[in-house]
């Protein structure tokens, strides 16, 4: 940032405008006001907080380069790094711009243990759920976290996302799911990190018993793919903190529509045909690409 000259009255007006805009969640105005103030006053007693708020506003705007640049300044002024949200948000922004050295430094300073190495982080951070498109369809899917902010989709999403895609999620959980005695956090998606070539297909199958549907799920899993019965999706009201749409794990028997993750129709039909062993009552038909 190049220095600009601001009078005391102008500086106070910028701060007030920025504060009012933050109350209204008007992030473009927040970012503009605080950035202008910081070009003139980068190191006042209140500047560390404003560096953080300016970086945060750009994070909400998905302006990752700016969030990264401002986030570096915020982190350097944050004081004790352990548990500091400035270092966490810098980790997210550095991940989005591909600066793995800074991302590793940010997570380490925050207090997240990482496996030794350089470059892209791909560790095991366990299973969780991510709310895709949180301001829209808000579909909640199972994921495998590969770093503090990225996760690979394990479900077959009903919406526009695909199995195998990697998404970036926010740091603080916004809900949870209980599966038997285990509780899993639900994070909100921030952005798509990497697309998946695996298409989504819709088919109809007949499974005489629950174990037959389980066998079909296992067949896709063995191929590194996935299957979801459409009627296992559970809808919740949009005001419910548990999320309006989740992929379930029910394995009922009978004729059902299913979502399939496969790179092409030939792969999907090969797995379906191998599952539908003659004499078992298993059957499938009417496969087509999901619109």
Write up what this structure looks like.
By secondary structure, the protein is of the alpha+beta class. The protein folds into three domains: 8-110, Tetratricopeptide repeat domain (Serine Threonine Protein Phosphatase 5, Tetratricopeptide repeat, Alpha Horseshoe), CATH 1.25.40; 127-194; 199-289, Alpha-Beta Plaits (2-Layer Sandwich). It has eight helices and twelve strands. The strands form two sheets. A five-stranded mixed beta barrel has the order 1-2-3-4-6. The protein has a four-stranded antiparallel β-sheet with strand order 8-11-7-12, covered by helices on one side. Helix 3 (47-60) runs antiparallel to helix 4. The two termini are 47 Å apart. The model is unreliable at 236-251 (pLDDT under 50).
Task: Measure the end-to-end span.
Answer: 47 Å
Second CATH tier, the architecture of the largest domain: Alpha Horseshoe
* CATH fold title of the largest domain: Serine Threonine Protein Phosphatase 5, Tetratricopeptide repeat
**Briefly, what CATH class of the largest domain?**
Mainly Alpha
The CATH homologous superfamily of the largest domain is named: Tetratricopeptide repeat domain
Query: Which sequence of strands runs across the widest sheet?
Result: 1-2-3-4-6
Could you give a short account of the major beta sheet? 5 strands, mixed, barrel
Radius of gyration over all CA atoms, rounded: 23 Å
Strand percentage: 15-25%
* Average pLDDT level: 90
Order of helices and strands: HHHHHHEEEEEEEHEEEEHE
pLDDT < 50 stretches: 236-251
């Amino acid at each position: 940032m190049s220095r600009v000259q601001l009078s005391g009255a102008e500086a106070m007006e910028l701060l007030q405008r920025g504060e009012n805009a933050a109350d209204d969640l008007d992030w473009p105005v927040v970012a503009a006001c605080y950035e202008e103030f910081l070009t003139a006053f980068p190191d006042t007693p209140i500047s560390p907080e404003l560096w953080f708020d300016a970086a945060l506003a750009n994070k909400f705007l998905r302006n990752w380069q700016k969030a990264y640049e401002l986030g570096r300044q915020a982190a350097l002024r944050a004081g004790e790094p352990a548990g500091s949200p400035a270092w966490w948000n810098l980790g997210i922004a550095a991940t989005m711009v591909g600066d793995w050295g800074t991302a590793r430094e940010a997570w380490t300073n925050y207090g997240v243990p990482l496996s030794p190495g350089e470059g892209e982080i791909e560790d095991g951070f366990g299973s969780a759920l991510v709310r895709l498109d949180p301001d829209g369809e808000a579909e909640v899917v199972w994921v495998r976290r590969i770093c503090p902010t990225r996760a690979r989709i394990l479900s077959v999403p009903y919406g526009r996302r695909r199995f195998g895609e990697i998404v970036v999620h926010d740091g603080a959980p916004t809900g949870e799911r209980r599966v038997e005695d285990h509780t899993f956090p639900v994070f909100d998606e921030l952005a798509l990190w990497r697309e998946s070539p695996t298409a989504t297909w819709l088919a109809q199958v007949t499974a005489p018993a629950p174990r037959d549907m389980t066998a079909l799920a296992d067949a896709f899993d063995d191929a590194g793919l996935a299957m979801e019965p459409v009627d296992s999706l559970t809808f919740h009201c949009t005001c419910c903190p548990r999320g309006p749409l989740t992929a379930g794990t029910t394995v009922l028997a009978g004729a059902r529509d299913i979502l399939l993750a496969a790179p092409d129709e030939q792969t999907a039909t090969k797995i379906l045909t191998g599952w539908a062993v003659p004499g078992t009552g298993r059957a499938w038909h009417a496969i087509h690409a999901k619109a």
